[in-house]
Amino acid sequence: MDHKKYIAHKIKAEGLSEEEICSAIALPPNPEMGDYALPCFKFAKALRKSPVVIALDIAANFSSDDVIERAEAVNGYVNFTVNKAALAREVIDEVLASGERYGSSEEGAGRTVCIDYSSVNIAKPFHIGHLSTTAIGSALYKIFNFLGYRAVGINHLGDYGTQFGKLICAYKHWGDRDEVQKGGIHAINDLYVRFNSEADEEMEREAREYFRLIESGDREANELFDWFKELTLEYVKGIYRQLNVTFDSYAGERFYTDKMGPVIDELREKGLLKESEGAQIVDLEPYGMPPCLILRSDGASLYATRDLAAAIYRKKTYDFYKCLYVVAYQQNLHFKQFFKVLELMGKEWAKDLVHVAYGMVSLEDGAMSTRKGKVVWLEDVISRCREKAYKIISEKNPALENKENVAEKVGVGAVIFGALYNSKIKDIVFSYDKVLSFEGETSVYVQYTCARANSVIEKGGVPASYVASDLLPQEAEVVKAVASFPQAVKDAAEKYEPSIVARYAVDLAQKFNKFYFDCKILTAEGDKRDFRLALTAAALTALRNALTLLGIGVPEKM
Prior knowledge:
The chain is of the alpha/beta class. It has 21 helices and twelve strands.
């Protein structure tokens, strides 16, 4: 039940709509004040009464029932207290009946959301800088699917540009096919790094020529390029499997080569294309932005050209409700420009394009450069987290079975959660010790809480029936937290912010652990034992569902 809507519907206040009241209802800072609060200050002008008088009138005319047991006016607020036992029965019954679907909905039925994320570069290993886009995009993909949308995960591969000419040139000079086949992506990257450190003017000229050959369809150049692409995808798909990440499309920049011409023609026909120092641009100065470069003076296309073609293709192919681009905040201007160009082209759906910007992630030693070879590979981060998790688990529980499997879930979960717990726009300095802590705001803490709850259920079972009455504050807090999961998922989708689900999981874990330590469960008697077991099962389900939406596995034992 949506208690805010329920309260708003019951309030009788002439001059105020149900929607106005509902949007104003909030959670009090102190649970002792009530479960919901309606501040009346914003209504004073419209009703021509003081907030104190408005609150007194609303409380006096509010009829309590089995759902809301009390409405009390306090200094311009109306505080509402929910019937805790009734709420507990309602929430636990719903969770136990829904299971892994608890928190899901069909609100997105019939609507498609395209999500462009990860978008790795061909012939370059997966480094830690790709972690945020991959983790955020994957979580949003799962969240939107959970809410009934058709989510389309798109890996807009970086498979276009002069760097591929450089790579072929380096391979021709120094490469060995067997060694590259055996070394895979890292052998390819070594060649790229060597080119950037050793190439002379003649090799730079050769590289430009090889890229021209790729563009013109030369057989040998394209066979080499396709081989590099095959080795790259084989490598990155292995990392995606570890991170529980999936895609529906790997259509990259090169896919749009033959789709840019019609876009350029349309820009020209609509009088938007202008010449500037030999290049073709769309003038965005009237909108407070630099010009959007469409074609360079040598006729070569740019990112904006390919992104325009991609957006139009996606609209035609998927008829999306929203199209999200999970890309670092450094590209803010680029997205503002190309969204504006689509708007100027008369694409009314340009308003449905969203740049989901995020901050940078690095280790303690700072930034990275693929060209210089200074980079932290994501596979190494995952491997190190897995090894540290195994060591910690072995020390805490030497007799634990399947320690390797548990360490995999814990280590990978720590990597993902480390990228998702903070607001996406914040820069992140990744700390191995912090993300693998069994205490504090980590996935390990939430996973350990799940294992604790699972142990209780294994010993006590889930009762066929239970009675909820006279809830203790610790019990009531767990009930309220479990009840808020569907809204947390909805908020995460509306704000494109998976951290809402991550923080929800930590909050519920903290409340459950307080309940676990303060209230006897297995040794309780009669109705109390059954109720607490049912509440434990409900909390475990909500925690599992939250972690699953983030792409994090849940060990049964730790």
